[in-house]
Amino acid sequence: MTDRASDAPVSAEIARDLDALAAESHHELPSLDRSLTAARRRRRAAPRWKELLMPVTTGSRRPWLATAAALLLVLAAAMFPISWQATVGHDVALTLTGVRDVAQASGIAREMKSVLGADHVAVRATAGGPTATLAFTAYVPAGHGVDAAARAQALAAALRSRGFAATATATPRRAQVAGPVYAYARDLVIRVETDGKTAAQIESEIRDRLAAAGLTNTTVSVTDDGARREVKVTAESHTPGEGAEGVKLQLTKDGKPIDDRQGVRIEMRRMRSSAGEMLHLDVTDHGRTTAIEIPHADAMSDAALESEIESRLRAAGFDLVVTVTNGRVSIEDRH
Amino acid sequence: MESLNEARWARLSALLAPIHTQAVGTARRLCRSSFEGDDLFQETVLRAFEKLHTLRDETRFRSWFYATLLSRHRTRLRRSFWRRLLPWDQAFAGGHEPAREDGTGWGEALGRAARARRALESLPAVQREAIVLFELDGFSIEEVATVQQVSVSAVKSRLARGRERLRAWYVRHGDAMPAAPRTRSGAPMLYQADFAAAGRKERTP
Questions:
Q1: Are the C-beta atoms of residues A231 and A70 closer than 8 Å to each other?
Q2: Chain B contact probe: residue of A2, A7, A16, A26 with most B CBs at under 10 A
Q3: For chain B, how long is the longest CA-to-CA vector?
Q4: Is A42 in Cβ contact with B21 (below 8 Å)?
């Protein structure tokens, strides 16, 4: 690098760097559809910075009215711009040593590309006596929904079973990102005794208790349908982020928490960054629990998100009804 | 109301389609990272949707949209929390750099791109915009003037000052060159190849 007396090398460096920036900024561009979908979700999700979250629906199978097996988790958040470290993808490296036929590299590279869902795989062969070492590398973005580490290990194991000396690593690539983040209200447990109360009374009390906890923009519905009591609560709130906890509603009978093994409980969180929105669901259905994470949920249509959540739940052995309307997720017991 | 919104989204989609790729690239180049650029772009799309009724002449959508993009960019810069962003480091980890067909490594390219971002970041917003639009996006000086809503002479001044600042930055900081790709053991490479997705180009044409 020189001073102004010899400007050409400086200008050349600037030009090369700007060319590299031009190329890098065109790498993995979002499609028009994705951009519009994300903007639409942002519009729905950011109504004057006051809206939040999800309706949570639970149902009960208890055969008698005096009990209800509902647990509500209300998530209160606010859009609050913040910067944090995020894993944006994984750099996967696969190494094969003692390879006699270097021509096998292309086939293995294609296999690796297929397994990882990577856009491209690079390979280098280095000599080491009568054999060669093949080093394969690929980058798997976080948004591809692929467990890069697990797949890399599985691929290495498969290659070892075929006689290769194969090892694989997956290194997280982290970046400082920033964007609006849904944060959460302080941890709070609200207990509502159900004994001797009608559905209307329980509904009123839940609403009052949520309001006392600072959640005033709520819809509460408690209905008795024959042998079943159903509790539905939606709460929206605006609270600066303090942590990842939620407000918990616990229904009790005779002073004891109603056994949630009799019903369905769902916790939902949306973590949003400039890289997209991660939807996290913790679902408990009659004592069995599963967790689901869906990256880039904001870029998905209602139908696609609905289908994705349902299929994930089904794969985990949960038979629940999922409805997504304008980005709002509702999960109900099917029976 | 919902049908009106859908009609507006459809109209915006049709107007945005011809310039989407270029505009996303511009947003990324104005920001400290592609992630931030995508976020800026989404903000701009939303803003464009909200203000689409003010667009009188659809033939001027490109300059109208870009003016909105620059406006959102400057608004974000004024927010103090954005200044806490640290420059991202997308250098290839692990020591194995994939090689490109022309022999350069991704690591070097990413390092150069990162350095360019750092250099551009040192410029005032209006000079940065002028440099990005003129040098990287192929806008004419007149087009830059339209988008920045200033005179042609103002754009020329911004370009000249921006280039001067970039040179000064590189003289001070430009010795940190990105490392060329190497093998770990130093053994000679037999060959290197890049298996890319079919039909996908490595560089922008």
A1: yes
A2: A26
A3: 67
A4: no
At B44-79, the pLDDT tens digits run 999 999 999 888 899 999 999 999 999 999 988 876
| Dihedral angle computed from the Cα positions of residues A15, B202, B103 and A126, in that order, rounded to the nearest 10 degrees | 150
Q: Which of A51-60, B2-11, B169-178 comes out lowest in average pLDDT?
A: A51-60
CA end-to-end span of chain B: 42
**Interface predicted TM-score (ipTM) of this complex, two decimals:** 0.74
Residue whose structure tokens are 């650029």: B37
**pLDDT at res. B85:** 43
Among A23, A106, A177, whose Cβ lies nearest the Cβ of B109? A23
Residue B106: its chain A contacts at CB < 8 A? Answer: 122
Estimate to the nearest angstrom the gap between the alpha carbon of A115 and the chain centroid.
22
Q: What is the least distance, in Å, from the CA of B129 to any CA of chain A?
A: 13
B chain contacts of residue A325, beta-carbon cutoff 8 Å: none
- Asked if the Cβ–Cβ distance from B90 to A173 is below 8 Å, we say yes
Type of residue numbered B172? R
Q: Which long-range contacts (CB under 8 A, 24 or more apart) does A303-310 make?
A: A305/A279, A305/A329, A309/A281
Query: Cα–Cα distance between B134 and B144 in angstroms, integer?
Result: 7
pTM of the model: 0.43
Name residue A72's beta-bridge partners.
A249
What b/e string do you get for A149-167 counting C-beta neighbours within 10 Å, with b at 16 or more? bebbbebbeebeeeebebe
Q: Does A122 sit within 8 Å of B193, measured CB to CB? A: yes
Q: Which residues of chain A have pLDDT under 70?
A: 1-7, 45-87, 143-146, 175-191, 212-217, 225-229, 234-265, 267, 269-276, 333-335
Cα separation, B180 vs B203, in Å, equals: 19
Per the CB < 8 A criterion, the answer to whether A107 and B54 are in contact is no
- Residues A279-299 have pLDDT tens digits of 878 787 777 788 888 887 878
CA of A161 vs chain B CAs: smallest distance (Å): 24
Residue A121 with chain B: CB contacts under 8 Å: 98, 194-195
With beta carbons less than 8 A apart as the criterion, state whether A222 and A231 touch. yes
Do residues A290 and A310 lie in contact, with contact meaning Cβ atoms separated by under 8 Å?
no
Is A12 in the B-facing interface, judged by CB distances under 8 Å? no
Tell me which residue of A107, A94, A27 sits closest to B106, measured CA to CA: A27
What confidence score (pLDDT) does residue A207 get? 81
Question: Would you call B74 helix, strand, or coil by DSSP?
Answer: helix
Q: What is the pLDDT of residue B167?
A: 92
CA atoms within 13 A on the CB side of A25: 31
